[in-house]
């Protein structure tokens, strides 16, 4: 199947508004539940929790877990860090992008392939951040790397299409432009000083742009995890 044919077929699927993107909803709810758990912790315990389950670059440079240790291999934090957030603004900003871009991509890739795409982009984004600051003790947390991958996939998806067709796609295009502006305006030193992990964002975006053609054209179609909901009758 050519890439153009894949785009057309997936565009037709996106027109079915009765499909609920279960993976996107599940990821958003998981992020919210984990954040509520974070809020339940005392401040000292919260700091320990974030340091234990976030990506600490020094651990990867030394190839071993550092205190506070976890009962799993240290590299599992490449996945767990995606579900931790540093505040309400951090969480809601990521959830907004996840819901909009995750919805668009899941309707094209299907639930199972989108989940794999999302997680792999998040892992690669974290590894880019580690490579940029290999001896940093600051934990990197948040879904931004994986979501940046979704933005990269969105750009490739619409290189032949019409990014302004439909309200959801207009919102996605505006948010994409805002995301690019934020990256350009970010203070370079913030990446190493506990601010925006710009290298993770860049790594995730590039990973998404490179991986999307593989997922949409090469990998076998997996039955979707989406739920079909009967359309409501308008009064």
SSE topology sketch:
Blueprint: H1 3-14, E1 19-20, H2 22-40, H3 43-53, H4 57-62, H5 77-80, H6 88-109, H7 111-132, H8 144-157, H9 167-185, H10 198-217, E2 227-228
Antiparallel strand pairs: 1-2
Overall average residue pLDDT:
80
Helical segment count: 10
How many angstroms does the end-to-end distance come to?
42 Å
Please identify the structural class as seen in this structure. Answer: mainly alpha
Radius of gyration: 18 Å
Instruction: Indicate the proportion of strand residues.
Output: under 5%
What strand line-up does the widest sheet have?
A: 1-2
Number of domains: 1
H/E topology pattern: HEHHHHHHHHHE
- Low-pLDDT residue spans: 1-16, 222-235
List keywords for this structure.
single chain, 235 residues, mainly alpha, Rhomboid-like fold, two-stranded antiparallel ribbon, 63% helix, globular, disordered C terminus
Molecular structure report:
α6 packs parallel to α8 (144-157), α6 (88-109) packs across α9 and α7 packs across α8. The relative contact order is 0.17. The protein has helices at 3-14, 22-40, 43-53, 57-62, 77-80, 88-109, 111-132, 144-157, 167-185, 198-217, and strands at residues 19-20, 227-228. The chain is built from ten helices and two strands. A two-stranded antiparallel ribbon has the order 1-2. Residues 1-16 and 222-235 have low confidence and may be disordered. The protein has one domain (15-219): Rhomboid-like (Rhomboid-like fold, Up-down Bundle), CATH 1.20.1540.10. The longest helix is centred in the middle third of the chain and has 22 residues, at 88-109. It is mainly α. It is 63% helix and 2% strand.
